[in-house]
Each structure stands twice: as C-alpha cells, then as structure tokens.
C-alpha cells in the first residue's frame, strides 16, 4: 500500500482531515496502515541530499564509538544499560544506516527508527556535553524525526499535534474566539479579588507582549489569570495578541519543519503588528526553544534573534523581584524541603540555570532548598520531554523513563518540586500518579502569588 487514508506522507492541513485522524481511537487504524506504508526511497534520498548539512555528516563520520556518551543518557541508565541505548549506537543504527543505504530501507526498519527516535531519545542534548568531539545527538535525532515525518512514520499523537498547528495555529483546537473569550473570562473571574485586573488584547506599543502554551486556555486558564495578576501587581503595561499568542511547537517534536517555521512566523507577525518593547513567554521550555532559540533561524532572521527581545517567564519574574516591582512577605516563604527541576530547553540550551536559583533565594527560607544531583546544565531530562509525555503507544517506556527523575527527587528528600516548564510539570505529575512517592509540584506563578506583598491600593475594599 503506497499510502493509507490516515497514515500517509501528507501533513494534515484541513479540519476534516484532522477530525478523521482524531476519531481513530488510539491510532488503531493509523498504526495498522503504517505497517503497510511504502517507503519512497527516491524521495527520502533526495531529501537527504538537499538537507544533510556538513556538520551532521561530519558528526556521523567522526564518532569514535568510545561510549563516553552512554552514562550521560538517562534512558540508557533506566533501561538496564543495554548497549542498544547508548546514544551513539542509537543514531548510527538509524540515521547512519538510512544514509549509508541511500534511503533504500524497509518499512520495518523505518518503524524501528520511529520507535528509537521518539521513545529512546527525548532530544535533551545532555549527551553532547560529554562527547569529546562535541557531537550533538539531539540535533541529529531532530533531523531523523524530520525524515521520518516526511515519510509518514510519526506517532499518531504528533501527526495530530502538528495538524492542530496547521489548522488552528495552536497545538490544540483553540480558535481565536476561544482564546480571546478565555482571556475576558479570566479577567472577569478574578476582578473581585483583584480590582482593576485586565488582560488587554491587541494593545499596540505596550511594554510587554505575553505569549503562552495552548494548554493554558484549553485546560489551565488559571495560568493565564496568574500571569495577569503578577503583571497587574508589578504595574506592567502589557498585552496579549489575538493572533500569534501560541508559542509552543508540537511540530518541532513531530519533525514537521515547514510547520515549525509557520508557527514562529505567526508569533513574530504579532510582534511586528503590535510593536511591544519586548515579549515574555510562559513557563514552558520547548515553547521558549522553538520561538526564541531555534525560531529566528527557521524564519531566516540573519541576526538569529526575534524581532524584539524575548524572555522566558523566569527572567521577567527575577527582574520583577530584583527591582521591587514584586515583593515577597518573608513570613510566607517556603519552609519545607523543596527542589527545582531544570528544564533542558532553557537551562541546557540557553543557560538560564542561575535565574531560577536567584528566584529561589527570594521565595524559599534558607536551609530548605535541596539541589538535585546532578543539576543545572547537567540535570537529567524530566523523562517526558521531546513529545514523550503525550504518545500513548510509548507510555510504558515513558513510565520507565520517569525513574531517573524519581531517584533524583527522592534523594533530595523534597516534598515540593518547582517545575517552571509545562512538560516537566506534566512528567512530575505523572511520576507521582504512577509511583506515589508523596510529592507536590508547582509552577512559579501560583507560589509567588501566595507569598507576595499586595499594595493596599490593589486590594479589594472590605
């Protein structure tokens, strides 16, 4: 079968197609069709010839098979240290073989590559720090994912997620109307407790344009309200765009590079339209990576920068604390063992390791903060990054992947895990639900709101 009805080489571009794939419960028909999907070897090899950069080719050629990357990989560690889980072997036996064979590979091999690309690697890039040649497996696995996506060998949920971005310009079916109504609803819902609270939409020339993760308006609207409350107390002149508010990229997880570019272009168009002084993104690691770190290159910006300075939420929060725009009541500081999850995407990939720790100094009573070991840029992936959290087919493997983070958290003795990243938050929530080790987890926003000093003029009348 050249291509299936649901599983094929075409991206989802219409609502009709999207609903058709969504209605396939758990991807049963999708994966059955995948077993019969023909590999278009000529197209695959043609794509490789056009896109294989000298850097990636050099990395494949110079790998010394020394195995120094093995222990760096948390998936290698939690899966019995099997040789097949060594990062260098994982990429050489998949991407390396596709290139050696000039794209002439079987359906069975491509399905194996899919399993490896999405359940044996989260593209956390930790192994690259230990390679004597500086080989970045995360970059190469991202490239492999792109090749697999182009041939139709992509997990069901990520085919859908990328389709959501193409149809709704968001990773979930949140329309412009849904988004703006949610903002209005959250402002109204909280105005009694926070007099004068607004969530301004499409305000031109504001100091800040705020962007978020589509999961917030879809499932966690209180997160939008919390951001609004903190901006309100800090006295910020801010806005959200009616279009271009979604900064996440399931298409990056899926390897749909054309869609990645479109996602970023949509956010940047909002920046050009509203002309804020800067942008602030929500507590989400991969959203920051997609929009701020990788995004400028995807859309061809020669300076490698977004149109305006673009900060992760933790950067703004530290600034607000250091300038006194937000003050913490010392009596309300955290006085129980607490640890911090370092997100791969803004700590390892942008170096914001000290920002969160400076915030910790404001909100945690001295003596109660417990570092994970290792930590900062050497911390391990939460176990659910790179799309791993959301793929039902690989849930058993994902649950095993959570064991490394479980070990790290238990070793700290912490009862609360601060996780300023949506994927990390989800993974640690699932870790507790699966293994029940007796922890709580939280973003920074609700913690700050609970302990900040509210000026009298912002309090509701008695």
From TrEMBL:
Where is each 4Fe-4S ferredoxin-type domain found?
60-135
Keyword Signal tagged: no
* Top-level taxonomic group: Bacteria
Q: Pfam families, alphabetically? A: CCG, Fer4_8
In what residue span(s) does the Cysteine-rich domain sit?
A: 338-424
One MF term in the entry's GO annotations: metal ion binding
Q: Which UniProt keywords apply?
A: 4Fe-4S, Electron transport, Iron, Iron-sulfur, Metal-binding, Transport
**Coiled-coil blocks:** none
In terms of PANTHER family, this protein maps to: FUMARATE REDUCTASE IRON-SULFUR SUBUNIT, HETERODISULFIDE REDUCTASE
What is the designated name of this protein?
(Fe-S)-binding protein
Name the species this protein comes from.
Oceanidesulfovibrio marinus
